[in-house]
């Protein structure tokens, strides 16, 4: 674990200098190292940054709060998105990585904040792998034209997921389609947990996108 400033706790695994960094956002109760193996499996040569959620709720680390009645706290969600953007920019600078939008891999709460930020804030990530996400804003953020045109977004859902009802997954997918993203969905009979099959599905999808070839550029 490393720390930057007061509230950025992260882990870093260097990669090739000219490969897009990959930001890893864990699920509720997780930590910055949770998605390192998945990130390394999908992007073996890329710099990986795991970022720990900024709040604790009932002893669990998250990126934004619930309201006392159990809904999503819309104000804290926006505050979390601002923090996520600021932290990302600060980390890229601190780690001497390109200031261009990174790729994001998020799971559950981490996928939810990444997805909502993309829908609200434009192409802050240049590709997204969202594991078991759902819409956390109601209505789903809409914007004119197609600000996410050409951005590849891969989303997984388990038909037996008790945390992510099908309509909230579908609403999120539609939000991405409406903003022009290049959407691909992966459905399974699983629940909320990440499965090897879905990671393999994401890997096959990723094979279509090539990173620049630079055998000299290893850091
Ligand atoms: C959320 O709180 O973002 C969703 O309910 C998923 C989760 O439990 O993390």
TrEMBL record:
<dbReference type="InterPro" id="IPR002925">
    <property type="entry name" value="Dienelactn_hydro"/>
</dbReference>
<feature type="domain" description="Dienelactone hydrolase">
    <location>
        <begin position="104"/>
        <end position="192"/>
    </location>
</feature>
<keyword id="KW-0378">Hydrolase</keyword>
<protein>
    <submittedName>
        <fullName>Alpha/beta hydrolase</fullName>
    </submittedName>
</protein>
<dbReference type="InterPro" id="IPR029058">
    <property type="entry name" value="AB_hydrolase_fold"/>
</dbReference>
<dbReference type="GO" id="GO:0016787">
    <property type="term" value="F:hydrolase activity"/>
</dbReference>
<dbReference type="Pfam" id="PF01738">
    <property type="entry name" value="DLH"/>
</dbReference>
